[in-house]
Specification:
Chain A is of the alpha/beta class and 352 residues long. Chain A is built from 17 helices and 12 strands. In chain A, strand 3 and strand 4 form a beta hairpin. Chain A is globular, with a radius of gyration of 20 Å. The chains are: A alpha/beta (352), B alpha/beta (565). The interface between A and B is medium-sized, with 16 and 18 residues.
């Protein structure tokens, strides 16, 4: 009982009011008081006066602030719902105010890299595991918080806002974080599973973006459901191997954050990654597509990072390698598809 | 060549021995043991739940294992009444089992009484037997006796035996954060975590603690060491409590943890060898045994729970590395390591330290010949691995103040969450390993062993360690020039890492390369019957025992120097 009472009085913090942040804030507001952080004064005012954030409606009980200090002081549980491109910056902004007692749960799918000063993602050839950070590793590195968790799963914001049934995974090494996440988010329409393998869950969410691009490309080529089934199944095998190589467990790939999210994304026209693949197959170049996209499709960065990693670690991941050649080395989609069809896969499933 | 080790003896921080926590503990020994027995019992009940059947099964398992141990692996130190005690436990269990009419709670009560008997006995077995008078005597013997030997060997002439030109501190060099550990010892409780390569470590560390003017630490020493009378005396004098590695049952382990936790909470500075046993391979510990380490975290949380928020109940973790040119037990350790196929279950203790005579012989050699030892004291950390400043306050990597208590807070207050503390223990273990590598002090002997072995390995790329060891000695010759260039490459890399604070190097590594090599060859495993590395008539390098070379080489494992070959 004490849990419920205190979460009524101590607000839950949500950082970032993009589409996913807004959806999560609204779900949290069903049970708890919620305080959100937005970077711009006008967005804060909009939320407090009109209860909307960039046009998306917010629960009237939600208060907004642009002070990281106030948010951290008021809240014990923080949800970081920031796009991956801004993640490091926002985390550093909050770092001085985050204490060891804070529980931090993030919902960002992406990887960060630590490069030598003279390197960039365009030029880097070698990436070791210790140069690659998942978002939870960013939080651990930049702040004093240790009780860190992540949210991942097939959670299309639009559907969540409509109140359609869905589920998510809260992953953390700490039972406490999982329980708190379940307690705060669970509702009749929203199921929350727990997983202790946070790295595996984060990686599932990240790696599926690679497969999503490929799925878009197949659709763009006008190929049918057989091809999609083939891709998803081989994609899962590849994700499992990559996840293992990066320190996750293969079993998390089989869960909601892996298979669940992959199936959803590979069928969704709303996914930026899917769209990117689709347009590539229609003959546009990467440059042309990126120019007309307002946000970067996360999968592009993931392909680069993972490709550099597998070359350094000496492992093979055919789908990722071929996407990298298509995106950055002028291989045509058709050629890469042919290559994949000839690739000597012999065993169906070899990771379970 | 100025050596920056500590040459003076520090004044004691607590001059009156009555103020020493370990003396206070010894005074309250009886009550303390009772308390440990009680708390261990509660802890086990907490773990097993209040189910009489589960408890019964655990009791029976313990009984079975103890009887087996007594029969299969008896030691000199085992108490005489052991057989009778377990017989009695057996009778007790049978009696309870026979009384069918007992209700569930009554049965639980009855089993709990038996459990209490066992935990109390274990607590008594584990408990240290510290006597301040013995401690003083031992300290004097060690310091006086050793410095006599030392001077006899180094200062020439009849009066040498009485010369004070050399002290033990020239032989065993102490470097690092000595002032900090002294400061912190008055502000909180120290938990020292050293690397462990030799049985000598326990005594060495005991001596160092006394040189630094700190009150004696308590520490868990393998019960097997108490089989050897000379060690038993030293250990008791140094405040050791006994860890019996044969007893792997839940009840023993929980009692042991309770003992350690309560002693830390009592304010006793403690010492754990976090590797659990001596490093068999010669590699710096990279996987730690977390059992005892977890007690430091528990004790810290308990202190916060009791509201010692003013910092007096703070626990400081101090990593220490001990660096040797020569490890007496190396041949046995490495043989063990190589033959270890499965888990080390009933490891038979039988090594060079098996008799008092052998130890004496070693000490004589050690003090009359070269071969220095250095001990590096690392920076103190809180139980979460944050460094602490001179005031004992935790600081994060940007220097900001950290309140360690907050790691244990949820919903605004300090809570008990064993799963959380398990994770914290793992984090702390990782941090300690990191620090070990940073404060590890490279000796010339480590360098030459590493380079020689890597060159031999590079020449036989298809072979693993086991194949290499079977190579005939004639086939193992390393050209001196090639060897020298290899040493230079590794040394450059060592200095590069040293500049980044990731490793430490002994002052003798700043000499010209030929001198370093000569020094290294002279010292590496110097008292072994078969030398790990020597020069042949042609001036090239060869080995008399490759597995020993492998052992000394392993000291530089974990820095990625292998990539240079």
């Amino acid at each position: 009982m004490t849990l419920k009472n205190s979460s009524k009085t101590i607000p839950v913090g949500v950082i970032g009011v993009g589409s996913f942040g807004t959806a999560v804030a609204n779900m949290l507001a069903e049970k708890s008081e919620v305080m959100v952080y937005a970077r711009k004064q006008e967005v804060v005012d909009e939320i407090n006066a009109q209860h909307t954030a960039s046009g998306r409606s917010l629960d009237p009980s939600i208060r907004a602030t642009f002070s990281p200090e106030e948010l951290c002081r008021s809240c014990a549980v923080l949800f970081f719902m920031v796009p991956s491109a801004a993640f490091l910056e926002v985390t550093r902004l909050f770092a001085p105010h985050v204490h060891p007692y804070h529980l931090v749960i993030h919902g960002t799918k992406g990887l960060a890299v630590q490069l030598e000063p003279e390197e960039s993602l365009d030029t880097v050839k070698k990436l070791r595991r210790n140069q690659i950070l998942t978002m939870s590793e960013v939080i651990l590195q930049e702040t004093l918080a240790v009780r860190v968790g992540c949210l991942a799963g097939p959670n299309i914001s639009k559907e969540l806002s409509l109140g359609q049934p869905a589920a998510t995974v809260v992953a953390s090494k700490y039972n406490e974080v999982i329980q708190q996440g379940q307690h705060l988010l669970r509702s009749e329409k929203f199921q929350v599973y727990g997983n202790a393998d946070i790295i595996g869950v984060e990686l599932s969410g990240v790696l599926k973006n690679i497969i999503a691009i490929a799925a878009g490309a197949l659709a763009g080529l006008g190929l049918g459901e057989n091809a999609k089934g083939l891709l998803i199944s081989r994609g899962i095998v590849e994700m499992a191997h990559l996840s293992k190589a990066l320190g996750g467990s293969a079993s998390s790939v089989m869960g909601l954050a892996g298979v669940g999210d992959l199936v959803t994304t590979c069928n969704s026209q709303d996914s930026r990654n899917f769209t990117l693949g689709f347009r590539l197959a229609k003959g546009e170049t990467l440059e042309q597509i990126l120019q007309t996209m307002d946000e970067v499709a996360e999968g592009v960065n993931t392909v680069r990072i993972v490709d550099a990693f597998i070359k350094t670690a000496g492992i093979r991941a055919p789908i990722t390698e071929n996407l990298h050649r298509v995106l950055f080395e002028d291989l045509s989609i058709e050629e890469s598809l042919q290559f994949l069809m000839k690739y000597p896969f012999s065993v169906d499933v070899d990771f379970v | 060549m100025e050596e920056n080790y500590i040459k003076h003896q520090y004044a004691p921080i607590l001059p009156k021995k009555d103020e020493w926590p370990v003396v206070k503990l010894a005074r309250e020994r009886k009550e303390f043991i009772l308390k440990v027995g009680d708390l261990a019992e509660q802890r086990i009940i907490g773990l097993l739940g209040k189910n009489p059947d589960v408890l019964k099964e655990e009791l029976e398992t313990t009984l079975y294992r103890e009887k087996l141990r007594i029969k299969q692996n008896p030691w000199d130190v085992d108490p005489d009444d052991e057989v009778d005690f377990w017989k009695e436990i057996k009778t007790n269990l049978l009696q309870i089992h026979a009384e069918v009419a007992l209700s569930k709670t009554k049965r639980l009560d009855a089993y709990q009484v038996v459990l209490k008997k066992i935990t109390s006995r274990y607590a008594e077995e584990i408990s240290s037997n510290f006597k301040a008078s013995h401690y003083k005597f031992t300290r004097r013997v060690v310091t006086y006796g050793f410095s006599r030997l030392l001077n006899a060997a180094r200062v020439k002439g009849f009066t040498s035996l009485f010369s004070n030109q050399y002290t033990l501190q020239d032989k065993i060099q102490i470097t690092g954060q000595t002032d900090q550990i002294r400061d912190l010892a008055t502000k909180g409780t120290i938990v020292m975590v050293p690397t462990h390569f030799s049985n000598l470590d326990s005594i060495l560390i005991g001596w160092i603690i006394s040189v630094l003017g700190m009150p004696p630490f308590i520490y868990g020493a393998g019960l097997n060491l108490f089989n050897i009378s000379i060690f038993a005396y030293f250990m008791n004098a140094l405040g050791a409590y006994k860890v019996d590695r044969r007893k792997k049952n839940l009840m023993y382990i929980e009692t042991l943890k309770t003992y350690s936790k309560e002693a830390i909470q009592f304010g006793c500075h403690s010492l754990f060898f976090p590797g659990g046993t001596r490093s068999r391979s010669g590699i710096i510990e990279s996987k730690l045994k977390l059992g005892l380490l977890s007690t430091a975290i528990e004790a810290q949380r308990a202190n916060f729970q009791k509201g010692n928020g003013d910092g007096s109940g703070k626990i400081f973790i101090v990593p220490v590395t001990i660096n040797y040119h020569f490890v007496l037990e190396a041949p046995v350790l490495i043989r063990d390591y190589l033959s270890m196929t499965g888990q080390e279950r009933y490891y038979k203790e039988n090594d060079e330290f098996s008799t008092s005579y052998k130890i004496f012989k070693f000490l004589l050699k050690f003090f009359t010949k070269g071969s220095d030892i250095s001990v590096s004291i690392g920076k103190a950390m809180d139980v979460m691995g944050n460094f602490v400043d001179e005031e004992g306050n935790s600081r994060d990597k940007w220097g900001r103040l950290v309140d360690t208590r907050e790691y244990f807070v949820s919903e605004g207050k300090v809570t008990v969450d064993t799963q959380r503390e398990e994770e914290y223990t793992q984090m702390l273990g990782k941090r300690i390993v990191e620090e070990f590598h940073k404060i590890n002090r490279v000796f010339s002997s480590h360098l030459v062993a590493f380079v020689a072995f890597e060159l031999i390995k590079a020449r036989n790329q298809k072979m693993d360690v086991f194949d290499l060891i079977r190579l005939p000695q004639e086939d193992i010759v390393v050209d001196y020039q090639e060897f020298k260039t290899g040493c230079q490459r590794v040394l450059d890399e060592i200095f590069e890492l040293k500049a980044k604070g990731k490793i430490d190097a002994a002052p003798h590594l700043f000499k010209p390369m030929d001198e370093i090599i000569a020094h290294g060859l002279e010292n590496v495993g110097m008292y072994h019957a078969k030398r790990p590395l020597i020069r042949d008539e042609a001036g090239n390098l060869t080995t008399e025992d490759l597995s020993l070379l492998y052992f000394y080489h392993n000291r530089l494992h974990g820095y990625d120097f292998e990539k240079l070959f």
